[in-house]
Specification:
The chain is an alpha+beta fold. The chain is built from twelve helices and 23 strands. 26% of the residues lie in helices and 22% in strands.
Length: 559
């Protein structure tokens, strides 16, 4: 097959115009094009009045000879090449007579996107993984999460952060990433999602997403597949210790005192497993502090974003609700950028600890809510969150957690309890004054927003350098998206869980630097950010585990 990239057609072209465009692009007769499929569809909206669709097309020609001659004739055309093989190839499979003792099955700790795909790949290789998830199964977890949003009741073990599906379940369900993917592992993730009930369009649209309601049933289906292949998924199983002997992991201990023997343990913890991070640090597992970002959620009417991005084409069904990606380098040296933008979505309570406030964004598949929201966050370094007042020397890997907790507790105070979040109008924030009355933008955060002054002198809702940088960035973003600094837009604080504040460092074999058999993976370990990158990391880690058990070479392991 041949692949055509950068095939451009007008936004409102008729469906039957695509085939003639392919034929014309190849310079062949219609009868010579046996079949074609859309591999990817994106858009170019730089000219709002003349938005174009950009296709990547895989073409099946009448004969192999015709394909060969076309490739020779069009050798200088970089947009016509043989279609790459995007099918997934396993590193190996357990033989039919493979006898794996129950106490030496691989263990996966955590059942978010990373843990799900680590367990799925291990199960598909015939290695019968045991999954240990501290939270509840996804439907029970959903009830607990709604309990916080509607009744201000937090379950510390079952919430936005903990439970089947991980934090990605209560998000926009974005299924795209900027990671390098030479092996097309993102295709494996998308294919498994489609098998589990996702719409087939996620295989070809440029920015696929699913939304929470669909993710719930999909996660259940993948869990059923893992179990059918011999794996186990055990809920409300909180790992409180790792068993290490002579630098090699030998199993884990659960909160109820039970021990599970295992020589291969995948740590797919998620970025909020703070007690587990502390335990690992105390056990001597190598980890280090890493940068992350903090800030607020900002909400605008979605119509403002649609008009700014799409102009007269706002509302077009193919374009959907508009998103954005912004960055500003402030005078104080800080980078301010938009994070996890959720078109037509809501701001949600995402804390996992009592008496702390954390915000995140979520959308359903329809992206039909009135407001758009995004994190507006500031990059910080480990030197920013040290607790000893020093400016040089090593930083404890746990200092970032203390830093997060400080500002989450401060947000709870400013919100005046019951998990209400502190908020301010953008216009008041820029003028450094307290917000007292909402304008035309109704904040979506539940359990509710308490209007306040986010910049109280000496003790605001974020460090002063963050406040200064965000105040400077908002008008700058106005130059890219008209209406972004509108006075009625709402800031809701605080966003602190953008990524893990530490990295459980691993080597090229995907194992901990000083604890063999321990495989740090995904967001919590500092190796992913979002559903897709976490899923891909889970696949690569599972390959490394499978290769070690089966005695083969994993393509993900570099010499």
């Amino acid at each position: 097959m041949l692949r055509i990239t950068e095939l451009r057609l007008p936004l409102n072209h008729a469906e039957d115009e695509l085939r003639p465009a392919v034929v014309a692009r190849l310079g062949i007769k219609d009868a010579q094009l046996q079949n074609f499929t859309v591999f990817k569809r994106s858009y170019d909206a730089r000219k709002k009045a003349a938005i174009v669709l950009i296709y990547t097309i895989d073409c099946e020609l009448a004969t192999p000879e015709l394909e060969a001659s076309l490739l020779q004739r069009l050798a200088k055309d970089q947009h016509i090449r043989p279609t790459p093989d995007t099918s997934y190839q396993f590193v190996g499979h357990a033989p039919a007579d493979f006898r794996q003792p129950d106490d030496l099955r691989p263990v996966v700790v955590g059942f978010g996107p990373c843990g799900i795909f680590a367990a799925l790949i291990l199960a598909q290789m015939g290695l019968r993984p045991i999954v240990l998830e501290r939270g509840k199964e996804v439907r029970e977890r959903t009830k607990d999460t709604w309990g916080l949003w509607r009744k201000s009741v937090l379950n510390p073990e079952s919430n936005v952060q903990f439970g089947e599906g991980g934090a990605g379940t209560f998000s926009d369900g974005k299924l795209y990433s900027q990671i390098s993917d030479p092996r097309h592992l993102t295709r494996k993730v998308l294919t498994e999602f489609v098998k589990a009930g996702a719409p087939e369009e996620i295989l070809f649209v440029s920015k696929p997403h699913i939304g929470t309601f669909r993710l719930v049933s999909m996660v259940e289906k993948i869990r059923a597949d893992i179990i059918a292949l011999g794996g186990e998924v055990r809920f409300e199983q909180h790992v409180t210790d790792v068993l290490i002997d002579d630098g090699h992991v030998r199993g884990v201990m659960l909160q109820n005192g039970d021990q599970i023997r295992a020589d291969h343990v995948v740590l797919a913890l998620g970025h909020s497993s703070r007690d587990t991070f502390k335990m690992l640090y105390e056990r001597g597992v190598f980890m280090e502090a890493k940068p992350f970002s903090i800030g607020y959620r900002v909400e605008h009417p979605q119509s403002i974003i649609d008009a700014a991005r799409f102009g007269p084409n706002a509302g077009n069904e193919l374009l959907g609700a508009a998103d954005y990606k912004l960055v500003h380098h402030a005078k104080n040296g800080r980078a301010v950028y938009s994070f996890c933008m959720c078109p037509g979505g809501t701001v949600v309570a995402a804390t996992s600890e009592p008496n702390r406030v954390v915000t995140n964004g979520m959308s359903q598949y329809s992206r039909a809510e009135r407001n758009a929201n995004a994190g507006i966050v500031v990059g910080i370094s480990p030197q920013d969150y040290r607790q000893d007042g020093k400016t040089e020397g090593p930083v404890s890997p746990l200092d970032g957690i203390a830093f997060q907790r400080f500002w989450e507790s401060r947000a709870y105070e400013l919100g005046e309890g019951d998990y209400k979040a502190p908020g301010a109008l953008v216009g008041d924030f820029i003028k450094r004054q307290r917000s007292k009355v909402l304008g035309n933008v109704e904040p979506s955060y539940k359990p509710g927003v308490t209007l306040t002054d986010l910049q109280q002198p000496g003790f605001g809702s974020l460090p002063d350098y963050c406040l200064d940088a965000i105040r400077e960035a908002l008008p700058a973003f106005e130059r890219q998206i008209k209406g972004f600094s509108m006075k009625d837009a709402v800031l809701t604080g605080v966003e602190t869980r953008t990524s893990s504040p530490l990295r459980i460092t691993r080597g090229r074999d995907y194992q901990s630097l000083n604890t063999k058999g321990l495989y740090p993976a995904g967001e919590g370990a500092g190796y992913a950010g979002g559903i897709m990158s976490a899923g891909v990391d889970g696949i690569e880690v599972a390959e490394a585990v499978g290769a070690a058990i089966l005695g083969v070479k994993a393509p993900s392991i570099k010499d």
